Structures are given as structure tokens and as C-alpha cells.
Amino acid sequence: MAIKSRNKVSPNFNMSSMTDIVFLLLIFFMLTSTLVSPNALKLLLPNSSSKTLAPQTVSVSVTQNLEYYVDKTQVSFDQLESAILSKMGTSEENSIILHVDKTIAIEEAVKVMDIASRNRLKMVLATQPK
After folding, report:
1. What CATH number should be reported for the domain holding residue 117?
2. Could you tell me the CA-to-CA distances from 125 to 16, 88, 119, 120 in Å, in that order?
3. Among residues 39, 50, 41, which one has the least CA distance to residue 128?
4. Domain carrying residue 71
5. pLDDT in tens, the chain (130 residues)
6. Domain tally for the chain?
7. Closest Cα partner for 66 from 8, 22, 109?
């Protein structure tokens, strides 16, 4: 007397649940990527192929006319250090994103880097991807 099992394992794999998950992830990333807006002015940035991720706390921009901006607020160079320090606060993850127009001499970027070095702040130079 042969006993047959009623529970057979199906060799087919159902992909519908997997495609639902992929579709939801695609929608999520498309929506969140449109909400990201950089906190900087429109400048012609130098090109670079490297990428560095740092928590952005303060954005410092130097325009073509040597105008200094701290988070879209124009300040003079004499007031730049105090404006940066007042925006930084007391967080341990302090960093500055430096946006410098590519037509500006490197000395102007070094001046801002010197301010960050004196105050022991992390600085990242913003570039445009190639």
C-alpha cells in the first residue's frame, strides 16, 4: 500500500512580491533625492572625481567678485570668522563645506581654510563631478 503525500513543494518561484519591494524602494529613492537641496550659491566649481561625505553644518561660498557668503548670508572677510563660529555651535561633528568659484585664485580659498585650521574645524572643498 503506497501512501502519497498531499503536500507537494512547487518548483516555481513567485517574483511578484520581490518586484513590489523593488518598486517601492525605487519610489522612495526618487522622492528623497528630489528633496535634497544644497545650501550654497550657484557657482562654477572645479571638477573632481573623488567624493567625500561629511555632515554639512555650515556652507561658505566665495563668488567671482570676492564676496563671502555663510549659508547664503553675505558677510565681509573681516566678519567671516565670527560668522562661521556663530553658525557652528558646539557640535562635535562640525564641518564646513567650502564652495569657491573656479575662476578665483587659490589664495582666497586658503584664507578660508586658514580660518578653519585656526579653530580646528573640519573643511571639505566642494567640487563638481566630472
Report:
1. 3.30.420.270
2. 45, 17, 17, 16
3. 50
4. 47-129
5. 667 777 777 777 777 888 899 999 999 888 877 655 555 555 555 565 666 555 557 888 888 888 899 888 889 888 888 888 888 776 666 778 888 888 888 888 888 888 888 888 888 887 777 6
6. 1
7. 109
